[in-house]
Structures are given as C-alpha cells and as structure tokens.
Amino acid sequence: MKRRIFIRALGGVGLAGLTVQAQTQRLGVPRQEVVLTITGRMSHTNRPNASVFDMAMLEALPQQAFTTQTPWQKDPIHFAGPLLRDVLTLVGASGTRIKATALNDYQIEIPVEDTQRFDVIVATRMNREPMPVRTRGPLFIVYPFDARAELRSVRYYERSIWQLRALHID
Amino acid sequence: MYSHQDNRRYLLVLALVTGLLGLGLAITAVNVWQQSRYVERSARLQADSVVAMTFQLEREFLRTRHELQLALARGAAGDWTSVQRRFDILVSRIDLLRESPTVAPLTLTDVYLQLWPELQTLQEKTDPLLVTPSRAQTGLEQVLARMVQMGPQVQALSQTANGLAAHQMEEQLKLATAQERQLLWLLIAQAGLLLLATLGLWWRHRNQVREHRQLQQLNRELARARDAAEQADRTKSQFLANMSHELRTPFNGMLGMMEQLENGPLNEAQRDQLQTAQHSARHLLNLLNDILDLSALDAGKLRIHSEPVQMRTLIHEVQQWVQALACAKGLTLTVHMDRDCPDWVLLDPTRVRQILLNLLSNAVKFTAKGHVRIDVRSHTQDDGQVLWTLEVQDTGCGMDAATLDRVFERFVQGDDSLTRPQGGTGLGLEISRTLARRMGGDITASSVPGQGSCFRLVLRAALANEPAGSPALQPTTADTTPPDTDTRRWHVLVAEDHPVNRKVLGIMLRNLGHQVSFAEDGAQALAMAREQTFDLVLMDIHMPHMNGLDSARAIRALPDERSQVPIIAVTADVMNDAQSRSLQAGMDDFIAKPIEPKKLAQAMQACVSRLQALRPHRSAVLSGMPMHSASA
C-alpha cells in the first residue's frame, strides 16, 4: 500500500518535470528583451508562474493585420500582430478577465469573451513598422474598430491599451 | 354624394396622414431619446479624453522629471535606462497631444501655443544627451532646470483642458436644450394635426351615414316606382291579351256567319252588301293583326322560329295570293328567280310570308296600271350563309324623297292625298322592316315619283337539308287541291265555351262534311275523349273549369290509343307564347281565331297527314277511317 503511493508520487514528480519541459518547448524561451509578461490562471509557463515573450516569439505566431480609423490619429492606421486569443491559447489561459498593464502603469480590464467575439490583436507593428515606445509601442492591443459599429465606443477605445507591458489572467 | 373612387382616395389620404403622423411622433420620440443619450455620451468622451490626455502628459512630465532628478543625484550609477524609458513615454504623450483629433480644440488655446514649442525644444535638446547620459551630466542638469521652470505651464495646460471640457459640455447642453424645445413644438404640431385629421374623419363619416340613409330612402322610392311601372306594364299586356281574345271571338262569329250567309240564297244586291261587309271585316282583322304584331314587337315578345323553307315554293305561294288582287286591277305580276338559287334554307316561313305579302300588296295597292315584278337573287357567302335579295318593283305612283325618308316610320302612309283610296294602318312596313332586321336582314326602298317604287328585302339564311317528308310545307300542296274533295267524314270533337264559336265551328265542320260533337269546357272534353274515339279535337285554350292546355295534357296522358288523337289548338289569343304553350301541352297545331273554313280544312288535313307520316303506328287506328287517303 505504502509502496504504491510512493511509486505514484514518484511518477507524479517525473510527470510534472516532463510537463514543464514540454511547456517550455511549446512556448519557447525569449532570447531578446522581454516585451510581454503574462501571469495568472494559465497552464503553460516558461518562467516560474509566468510566461514571457520577446518580440520574435510574438512575431512567430500567425499574424493578423487590418487598417482602421482610431480616435488618436486623423488618418487610418495599419496594425499587424498575433491575435490575442492565439496568445491566450498558447499559454493555456483559463480565466474570464484579463488585467492589462502599460509601461506608464495604465491598467484596464479586458473580458476574455472579447477575444472570442472580435479579432483583437496584440499589434507589434504600426503602419508596417515596429513600434518604439515613442509611437506608443512596443505592443498595442487593438480592436478592429472599422469592422463593427459597436466597437466604435469608449468601452473598446479604453480597452485598446498601448505601451502594453503585462497581462494578468483572472 | 361621394363616388366610390373618391371615397377610397379620401380614406387612403386619411390613413396616410394618420400613419405619417404616428410615424413622425415615434421617430421624434426615438430621436429625442437618442439625442440626449448621444449628447451625454459624447460630452463625457470628449471631456474625459482631453482632460485625460493633458493629465497623462502632466503625470509623465512629472515622473520623468523625478526620475531624471534621482538619476542625476546618483551620477553615473543612476538608472539611466529607466530615465530613457520615461522620456520615451513622455515623448509619446507629447506626440499624442499633437496628433489626436479629440485634442483639437485645445491646440487653439494660448497656453498650448506657448507650451508646445517649448516641449519640442526640450525633446530636441534632451534626445542627444540621453544617448550617453553618463557623459552629459551638465546638459541634463540644465534640462532638469528647464523642466522645473516648465512645471506651472504644464499644469496650466491641464487646467485649460479641464475648463475647455466643462465649457464644451455646457455648450452641448445648451444645444440639446434648444433641440428639445424644437422637438417639443414639433410634437405639439403633430398632435394638433392628428386631432384635425381625426375630426375630419369623424365629420366625413357622419356625412356618409346621412347620405347612405338618403340613398336608401331614394332606393326604396325607386323600387316602389319600378314596381308600380311593372304592375302597369303587366296590366297593359294583360289588357292587350284580353282585347286580342275578346275582339277575335266576335270576329270569329261575324266572319263565320257571313261565310254561311254567302252560301245561302241571296239576290245580287244582298250579295254585294254582304261582300262589302266581309271586306270591311277582313280589313278590320288586318288592322287588329298589325296592332297586335306591333305590340308584340315592342314588348320583345315576338320570336323568330326558323325551320327548313323552300324559298321557291314560298314565293310562289305568296304570288298566288296576290295574283287575284293584281288581276282585278289589270296588273301583271311576274316573278323572276335566278336558276342557281339554293332550294332549302333555314327561315321563319310565317314571317317571310308576312313581309313578302306586305310588300306585294303595297305594290299592287299603289299601282294603277302596268306591272309588279319580283326579282329574286341569292349569293352564297364564304361562311355558308345565303344572302337573299328580293326586289319588288312596281310602276305605281312612286314617292318623293321626303316621303321615302318617312315611309318606314310608324303610322306614315305616303302622301295624305293618297291615304284615302289606299287605306291600311301604316304599320305594315315598319313591322316588315323590324321583322327583316330581327332575321338578320333589312328592307330598303327607292322610288321615282310618277314612275314607281322599288322595295328591296335582304335576308340572311343558313343552308338547310330537305326535311324528310317535308310536312312543314304540306299545306301549300294541299292548297292546290280543294280540301273538301279530299276529306271524308271525320268525327271531330269541338271543345269551346263560347256558344257563338261553337255554332260557327259546327256549321263549318258540317259543311266540310264532318260529324261534330261539342264539349263546353276542358273537363267535358277530357271525359268525351276518354269515352269515345275521335279523329280530331279542336281545343279552345281559354275555357272555364279546365282550360284547353290542361285538358290536352290530360288527354295525352290517357292510357290507351285515344291519347294519340290529333289535337289542334284554337284561340283568339295570338300573342306568341300561346302557340308555343299549346305545342308544349302536347297539341299538334294551332289556329288563330277568327277561323276561316279554308284555313281550318288545311290545318286539319296537314295535321292528320303529318301525324300519319310521323307516327306510322297510328295507322292501325286511322286505317279504318276514310281520311287516310288524305296523305296521298
């Protein structure tokens, strides 16, 4: 009886070790400056209790692009980057709310539902150029405002967070 | 009074107006609601964003200044990466202030216009220093000093934005209030219009109800008038039928008795007086017939019964009748008929005979010397119809154009001076032409005064096959042989309620050599026909107790051979349906009163011989009777 428990515990430890390794393989490891840190309820991590991304890791994901009018500039802007839901899937996120934080400590809550209903992207490029901090980079969560009328409202404008630094999944 | 279309258009317009008003009200209400929401939302958005933008700028300005101060205090060991990051964020905020459309109203303020170039200069001066911050301590000290100086300006910008937002909000509220007031007036106007429309509808409805009531009243009055008119018309028709009957009955007696007188011993003077009396009576009868025909035509009761007719025979027959008249006046009467004219056609022989007789008698009447000539031509059309043209030409007195124009009019008789010697009702030509037209033809006339007239009768008729045994025209052949020599003694039942008529018929039949039994009404006739075998029944239609029609029907319903006895209807009622009703009742023929012996003999013979031909099984009953030789 005791022996069986012991074996099971041993197997459990081994399995856990293997899982961490598999997860790391799946996510990859940042080789450059970390631009995005994800914490909270998720199944895959590549740091203790966190998943971190450099720009290359984000650009390796399937890219989505669209041009849209925004309240912040007169001309339409072309945005490109991975879908937010792809990023969430990659880390195995299991929450319902995302708390997004910007470099200037701006925080906003985004319902996970938004990522399913709309093609919300984590833009890495603006008008086909990488975004420095001065042009509200390096990451910018953008809703496809022009695709749906309901998106052209304060609610979604304020969820479009620039200079994105971190996501926390609740 | 509104027409139906008017009414519909009115209701449509009304419905449209009401609908539009309702829609307008709904739209207005929705608009008001949406507008207030929009004003509220947009005011909040703009205020928030302008205020937030300047607030964020101020915040980043202060954080950068603080970071720079800290780093400068620690010299080369300071966190210069953090300073650089802070400065980048500040620059992004400065750029936003320039680019963002929501900040546009702010860019027009003095505070902004003063601060903006300074921020620009600060950025240009700081950027190169931050590339190697550890070696640019002095420059960065100056930057810090500048930023400290700029502090109040940056805060002033935030305050300006705040004031601007508040002002904008106020403006929008004012605008919204004005719009709401306008909308309110619009609503009041619409409500007023709606009320007016409803009032209009109510008013119209009231009018319509009143008019409807008037219309119903009028309708009732019209119905009463129509009923009265119909009643009067029926009374008139009934009167006509009665008169027809009542006049013919004494005629029957008068003509019959004069006929009998003529056969008795008379001296020359008496015979002449009698003939004049007879002549007058016949003339009177003709007048009566014309008037009755005209009444029937006017009432639309006169019907055309087409049957196969041999035109050649028919024309010959009419010629025979008029011949005597012509001879008496010393006129020649000739008929010229094309050889290729078809033999049998479908026509109403009675009516054609009537028209021809009228035209021919007129021609003879108005011709003092010379001749009357009939030209008959026919033309078969593509559709198989035969177009007959019968021209009656005379060498009489003729007519001038004015008379010719009016000759077909009712009661018109040529020239007044001519009226006296010629006599007549003046109805003949009108009747003839109406009849011709009813048969799809016409009558036209041309005339030269003093030289003669020409009346042209055109008839349209379909080709017909010769009927088997051709009984319809048998009387014409019978006409050639005197009937009294052909007919043996028959036993004839006379059903007649009027004693004079019974007497006349009895004398006529006995003179023709027949044996006569009398019945005074239909019931008696039926009883006698059941008990005895008769060769022929002469049945008056109008009789008390049981009329002739019912009696004939009852005889036809008898179980034995006696039900097949030939029955001839005798009546003074010559309106058209009397004939058809008697045929429907199962009778074989129809004779109109007054009865002349010759006509009676012809009808009797025709009837019996036709029955023999059509019902060969009856020969068993008739074979023992002498009359069967009549079919020879």
Can you give me a brief rundown of this structure?
Chain A has 170 residues and is an alpha+beta fold. Chain A has five helices and eleven strands, in the order H-E-E-H-E-E-H-E-E-H-E-E-E-E-H-E.
Instruction: Give me the number of helical elements of chain A.
Output: 5
Strand and helix order of chain B: HHHHHEHEEHEEHHHEEHHEHEHEHEHEHH
Overall mean pLDDT of chain A: 85
Topology order of chain A in helix (H) and strand (E) letters: HEEHEEHEEHEEEEHE
Shape of chain B: rod-shaped
Number of strands of chain A: 11
What is the CATH architecture descriptor of chain A?
Answer: Alpha-Beta Complex
Portion in strands of chain B: 5-15%
Query: What is the number of strand segments of chain B?
Result: 12
Show unreliable segments of chain B: 415-422, 470-487, 616-632
- Structural class from helices and strands of chain A? alpha+beta
CATH-derived topology of chain A:
Sulfite Oxidase, Chain A, domain 2
CATH class of chain A: Alpha Beta
Biggest sheet architecture of chain A:
5 strands, mixed
The whole-angstrom Rg of chain B is 59 Å
What is the strand arrangement across the widest sheet of chain A?
A: 2-1-11-5-6
Distance between the termini of chain A: 39 Å
Report on this structure.
The complex is a heterodimer of chains A (170) and B (632). In chain A, a hairpin with a 2-residue loop joins β8 (125-126) and β9. Chain A has five helices and eleven strands. Chain A is α+β, with helices and mostly antiparallel strands. Chain B has 632 residues and is of the alpha/beta class. Chain B has helices spanning 4-74, 80-99, 110-131, 137-263, 268-298, 311-329, 349-365, 401-406, 416-422, 428-438, 474-480, 483-486, 499-511, 522-531, 548-556, 576-584, 597-614, 619-622, and strands at residues 307-310, 332-337, 344-347, 371-380, 385-394, 442-448, 452-463, 491-495, 515-519, 536-540, 567-571, 589-592. In chain B, β8, α13 (499-511) and β9 form a beta-alpha-beta unit. Chain B is rod-shaped, with a radius of gyration of 59 Å. Residues 415-422, 470-487 and 616-632 of chain B have low confidence and may be disordered. The interface between A and B is medium-sized, with 15 and 20 residues.
